[in-house]
Amino acid sequence: MKRSSTERIVVISDGTCDTAESYVRAILAQFEKSDTEIQRIPRLRQPSEVMTALDQFSPPFLIAYTFATEALRKLVWTEIRKRGLTGFDILYPAVELFAEFFQTLPTESQAVLHSTLSLNYFERMEAIEFTVKHDDGMKMKDLSDSEIILTGVSRTSKTPTSMYLAHKGYKVANVPLVPGVNPSEHLLKANEARVPIIMLTIEARALERIRRSRFEKLGSSPAQKDHYVNPERISEETDAAIALARRYNWPVIDVTSKAIEETASEILLLVSPKKN
Asked: Which of 123, 143, 177, 209 has a CA-to-CA distance to 67 between 20 and 30 Å?
């Protein structure tokens, strides 16, 4: 069966793949490809496991990888070339530079980035769990427990931005705005509780392009398409969202052509810092 273009990026690692996937998504955001699916194959600790993983793929595939040991890095590099795949080592160029600067060799400890001894590890895991449970308007009754709430119309990068902030240790909920529907009472109660609420917006033409692409991938009824990608209705949606933000004095961030990291940085400048 022929694979779709959204299935042609794979991250492999001796750890969880979180670092590799975050890096790849940051790059994809530069191409407005933040919805691209990324396959993860974590915890490859032996050469045989690496070979078995790579045997699943043939061109065109892009393989992003992070391995602590030099032996596994070299094996992956060799096998990717042998198979005609495209691949790149995310961490090693930087590790090599740091080793030269510090005049010492890296430990080559596998999965060290995700060690339970890492600073704020459990706090970050708790934030990630909270954010996943409060994605896309879920568990609205708990909104006031959030540290940051992101809201906005459909396809304004609320979910990926929320997850990026969660990995920084922030409990984030994101609440979609539905055309013609008043904001949830739970959102307004969170506002009264002084939870920081950030409105994400995007230029209407860019949003139309993103929605049209998504519609073509998923498919839907003609009536839904007319509502979802109609330029006039999109403009009405974004205008209404900005008007709502102004009514409640919520900061507005335009995510048009911005990387997720850039949006997240702007958000963190707007909320009281709680992480060192």
From this structure: 123
